[in-house]
Design goal:
The protein is α/β, with parallel strands linked by helices and 319 residues long. It is globular and about 75 Å long. 33% of the residues lie in helices and 29% in strands. Helix 7 (156-171) crosses helix 9 (302-317). InterPro entries: Gfo/Idh/MocA-like_OxRdtase_N, Gfo/Idh/MocA_Oxidoreductases, GFO_IDH_MocA-like_dom, NAD(P)-bd_dom_sf. GO terms for molecular function: nucleotide binding. It comes from Spongiivirga citrea.
C-alpha cells in the first residue's frame, strides 16, 4: 500500500482523510493543518496523527493529498514534488496558469505523478455515457448552487464552472478557438454568476452557465451530436441518451418516427446506460494509486488541470 498524507483538514480535507483511511490502496500516515486548534480537534475526534510541519509529513509518505486553499497549492506542490513525492491536488490546480505550468514541468523533471481533483470525471452519470459522447457539436451546461460563503474568495468560474470546463475539454478533441463571457458580482467581491461561450476549431460550441446565488441546486450538461442527444445530471446521478437511426420500412406500432422536409424518415430510440453507484472522491483517489502502481497516466493529469485553469482564466479575463 502507498503511504499517504493529507495537507489541510478543513471540510473537504476531512472527507479525504476518512476515505484514504478506509481505502485498501493507501496507508494513511497522518495530516498537517496550519490551524493548530482545528488539527487537534480532528485528531482527537478521528484518531489521525498530526504532523508538526509540512516537511515532516512529506518525509513520512509516498503520496501527498493537497486539500488546502488554492492560493497555497503551488507552494505545497513544489515542496512535495522536489522531495520526489506523488501529489493529488484539489481543483483548481493552482492560482495562476504560470504556477500550473511550473508544477507540470517540475513533476516531469522529478518523474513524479500528479492528479487534479476534478471529481465530476468520476461521477457515475458521466462515466456511464462518456464513451457515447463521440463528436459533440453543441454543449450546454448549467451548474447552479445556493449561496454558501465557503468558496466565495474566488470567482464562480474557479469555484463551480471549472468542473464543466474540465468535462468539456475531456470530450471535445479540438483546440479552443475563441471565448466570450460575462459575469456579475451580486453578493461577493468576485462574480457570483457567469455565462461563457467556448468555440472550438472543429466547430463545436459550448455554452456554460454557473451561479452560486440560485434558489435551487442544478448540475446538468447536455451534449448534442449527429443522431444523438445525451443528457447528464451530475447532481441526481442520472443520464439520458436519445438516438436516431434510419427508420425501418415497416415501423412497429410503438416506434417513434420523424420525417424531415426532404422526406427522410428517422426512428428515435432511447438507451439507458448502466449507472454504478460509487463514491466519486474515493474513486479518483484510488485510480491515482493505480496510476502510480502501474506507471500509467492519471485520469486527470496535471496538464489537463492546467488546461482547464487556462480556459477558466480566459473566461475571467472577459469580465
Amino acid at each position: 500500500m502507498l503511504k499517504a498524507g493529507v495537507l489541510g483538514a478543513g471540510h473537504l480535507g476531512k472527507i479525504h482523510l476518512r476515505l484514504l483511511n478506509q481505502s485498501n490502496k493507501y496507508d494513511l500516515i497522518g495530516f498537517y493543518d496550519p490551524d493548530a486548534e482545528n488539527a487537534k480537534r480532528v485528531s482527537e475526534e478521528f484518531g489521525y496523527q498530526i504532523f508538526d510541519t509540512i516537511a515532516d509529513l512529506i518525509k513520512a509518505v509516498d503520496v501527498v493529498d493537497i486539500v488546502t486553499p488554492t492560493l497555497s497549492h503551488f507552494d505545497c506542490a513544489k515542496q512535495c514534488i522536489e522531495a520526489g513525492k506523488h501529489i493529488f491536488i484539489e481543483k483548481p490546480i493552482s492560482n495562476t496558469v504560470d504556477e500550473a505550468l511550473k508544477m507540470v514541468e517540475l513533476a516531469n523533471v522529478q518523474k513524479v505523478k500528479g492528479q487534479v481533483g476534478h471529481v465530476e470525471r468520476f461521477n457515475p452519470a458521466f462515466t456511464g455515457v462518456k464513451d457515447m459522447i463521440e463528436t459533440p457539436m453543441f454543449i450546454e451546461t448549467h451548474r447552479l448552487a445556493e449561496f454558501n460563503p465557503r468558496g466565495t474568495d474566488v470567482p464562480v468560474v474557479l469555484d463551480l464552472m471549472i468542473h464543466d470546463i474540465d468535462v468539456i475539454l475531456s470530450v471535445v478533441k479540438s483546440k479552443v478557438k475563441q471565448i466570450s463571457a460575462s459575469g456579475v458580482s451580486v453578493i461577493s467581491e468576485t462574480p457570483d454568476i457567469a455565462n461563457a461561450r467556448i468555440e472550438f476549431e472543429n466547430g463545436c460550441v459550448a455554452n456554460l452557465t454557473a451561479s452560486r446565488i440560485s434558489l435551487k441546486n442544478m448540475r446538468k450538461s447536455r451534449f448534442f451530436q449527429k443522431d444523438a442527444y445525451i443528457s447528464v445530471d451530475f447532481l441526481e446521478k442520472k443520464c439520458e441518451v436519445v438516438k436516431m437511426k434510419d427508420a425501418p420500412e415497416t415501423p412497429g406500432e410503438f416506434d417513434m418516427i420523424l420525417q424531415n422536409a426532404e422526406g427522410i424518415k428517422k426512428q428515435i430510440y432511447f438507451e439507458n446506460p448502466d449507472i454504478e453507484v460509487n463514491n466519486a472522491i474515493l474513486d479518483e483517489l484510488e485510480t491515482f494509486a493505480d496510476a502510480i502502481n502501474n506507471n500509467t497516466t492519471p485520469i486527470v493529469s496535471l496538464t489537463q488541470g492546467m488546461e482547464a485553469l487556462k480556459v477558466a482564466k480566459q473566461i475571467i479575463d472577459c469580465f
